[in-house]
Amino acid sequence: MDFAIGEDRQMLADTMKRFLSKEFDWEKRLKVIETAPGFDREMWSNVAELGVLGALFSEDAGGFGGSAFDVGVVFEEVGRAIATGPYLGTLMAGRLLAAAGESEALEGVIAGEKVLTFAHEPAFDAESGDTRDVTASRSGDGWTLDGAKGVVEYVGAADLVVVTANTDDGERAFLVETSSDGVEVVDYKLVDGGSGGELRLSGAAAKELSGVTGETIEAAKAAGVVALAWEGVAVMDQLRDQTLEYMRTRKQFGVPIGKFQALQHRMATLALEIEQARSAAINAAANFDKPERDRFGAAAKYTVARVGNLAAEEAIQIHGGIGMTWELPLSHYAKRMVMLGHILGDEDEHLGRYIELMRAA
Amino acid sequence: MNLEYTTEEEAFRDEVRAFLKDKLPKRLSDKVRTGKRLTKADMEEWHAILNEKGWLAPHWPEKYGGTDWSVMQKFIFETEAAQAHAPRIVPFGLSMLAPVLIKYGTEEQCQHYLPRILDGTDWWCQGYSEPGAGSDLASLKTSAVREGDHYIVNGQKTWTTLGQHADWIFCLVRTDASGKKQEGISFLLIDMDSPGIEVRPIKLLDGDEEVNEVFFTDVKVPVENLVGEENKGWTYAKYLLTYERTNIAGIGASMAALEQLKEVARTTKRGGKPLIEDPLFAQRLAKLEIDLENMKTTNLRVLDAAGKGGAPVAESSMLKIRGTEIRQEIGSLMRRAAGRYAQPFVAESMDEGYNGAPVGPEWTGPVSSQYFNNRKLSIFGGSNEVQREIISKAILEL
Asked: Which residue in B136, B341, B343 is closest to A252 by CB distance?
């Protein structure tokens, strides 16, 4: 047994950490999140140049990593800095491009020249009050897409989108250029500082990702679940550390508030829960290529969301009023933490999924 | 035992309902119901409607324009108003300053300030917390030094809610630093237009600017603006904290919010089924409803005791803790119900007259902002940790 992350991965993590702490310091982050599209395109190219995006993909696909632990290490750094940018979309959509052998498109993405994102959830449709999804139909030699996808991360800045769509043969994935006719994007800010958007397609030309089936799409989302679990644990670590630091320095009733046993015990519980969450994230990565991938994925997503909410709420509560201010980084970590639970299914959804898998086993 | 309202109380409830139906402008109740931001004018409008009816100050004696309602009547009014989505009545002048003036102020102060609170001439804000004095309020440092007919005030207050609208601020200031920290505090009324006062907004995590910092630099305050005796301010401040906390649990607001949550759970589909059929979500919802129903009776029991002359000090701490936890849980479930549409943050959509297309179901617009904003409930008004201290000492005698 070996819980060390490995030298190469450690080097990548260190490089990324150095880069983000220098190029994405607090002032910079506040500036970036105030302006559309919530991330800095030039910085994104620099991130790509460091090899961060390459680490998400295997050598066959033009990357130099691609294992679940490679993914975990990258997203741990994303979480530590609460970096904004289409990391998650790049990961999931990129893995579908890789599976389809679209190496040319993926090459531009890994190099940071093209921004890629992933549109996989149906959009809310105000007219019907229900959701509306995308369907694909054959048109001559190619395909066209109609319908809508909702809350697509950074779609306002994307050059390329991988869109999942219903076909007569079930769910398939397609590559769409956002500059094409029939592609409309309504973008908006997100609570965590980044951006998202509604993607509306009417007769938009699309390229089928050959060989990609519903199962391939599930595998890409499973990689997303591992990524979010590792990112979430890193955000929790920050919430805990910033709160402990505050407890050591903030004085009330003549002593640092960390001297109050009632608060000490709450932080002890939180620290324990965070270690449980870290183990859940490790389990998810370790089982990624194994038959129980989805069970461990659901366990991780459930645990990280549950503990994440606890961490966010306790961190704000123990800080008091100051923990609710925009000025303090802590409140932004809390927002990212809670919002992670709203991507790829929440705590209840994954607990429900776990129950189903447990019953089926 | 009988948990029904008396015939008189029922008649009163019907009267309140009829009034709300008749006089509460739909424009205002719609804004409250959909979580839109209330402007100063909105709050003043509702204030004036209640004043016209003579129902603005239920907890004041009749001679100053109050209603002399029983505690149960106050509870009924507060609960009905909240369920009808009436705007919250801004409490600083009406519920916080006025009781102190009535009990400890001079007749001149009452005659001068109370009518101006009722007719809306003066908007008050509260100057209690300081950067170094939060839960430990008595350690406050803002100083007032007597010089002839004036006090000279220097220091800083913070978390001053709606201070940007205020004409006046009531402040706890230090007039003596020599003895125990509770003993050198005075209660001072300060005109916000005085030279040397600066108000700076604090931006909160949901982007809102409802709280402020207030800075005092050599601010001259006439000595007649002192309430009660010098150095007795802590007694008055404590009186304020124990006085008439009939609405501290926010039962009415929670009942209204729970109704909305249940409607959302019935109409929102997750995985093809209404959310209320998801056993995990339904369980959260059921636990919440049970807790609220229990809280309602706990609240009524406390009120009943208060009506019979008991002073519910530590009991109101229980109401505050669980009442705020329930409100936070309702907000949390609304956020969960929104699924991925909890993520969009369209700040302009919180304002009246926003015409942009909603990006998700309309009710999802404010849910995350409200969830994060609701964190304040367990922090302000004496944090829930401070309330637990009170329970440990006053009820459990530990």
From this structure: B136
Q: Which residues on B lie below 8 Å from A198 (Cβ)?
A: 359
* B134 Cβ contact partners less than 8 Å away, ≥ 6 residues apart: A252, A320, A321, B383
pLDDT tens sequence across A35-74: 989 999 999 999 999 999 999 999 999 999 999 999 999 9
Nearest to B169 by CA among B235, B210, B216, B223: B216
Quick check: B324 pLDDT over 70?
yes
Question: What is the C-alpha separation between A345 and A281, in angstroms, rounded?
Answer: 16
Per-residue model confidence (pLDDT) at position A163? 98
ipTM of the complex, rounded to two decimals: 0.95
Domain that holds residue B352: 250-394
Q: Tell me: do B157 and B217 sit in the same domain.
A: yes
Determine whether B293 is an active site residue: no
Check A317 against B379: CB less than 8 A apart: yes
Judge: B344–A348 Cβ closer than 8 Å, yes or no. no
Select the residue of A126, A324, A349 nearest B358 (Cβ to Cβ).
Answer: A126
- Detail the DSSP E strand segments found in A42-119: 116-119
Q: Give the C-alpha separation, B58 to B150, whole Å.
A: 34
Quickly state the pLDDT bin for A84 (edges 50, 70, 90). Answer: very high
A335 touching B (Cβ < 8 Å): yes
pTM comes to 0.96
* Alpha-carbon gap, residue B77 to B17, rounded angstroms: 9
Q: Which domains does chain A have, with CATH numbers?
A: 7-115 (1.10.540.10), 119-212 (2.40.110.10), 215-360 (1.20.140.10)
Nearest in space to B373 (alpha carbons), one of A270, A340, A191, A238: A191
- pLDDT in the model for residue B245: 66
Looking at the structure, do residues B268 and B377 belong to the same domain, yes or no? yes
Model pLDDT for residues B350-388, shown as the tens digit of each residue: 777 777 777 899 899 999 999 999 999 999 988 999 999
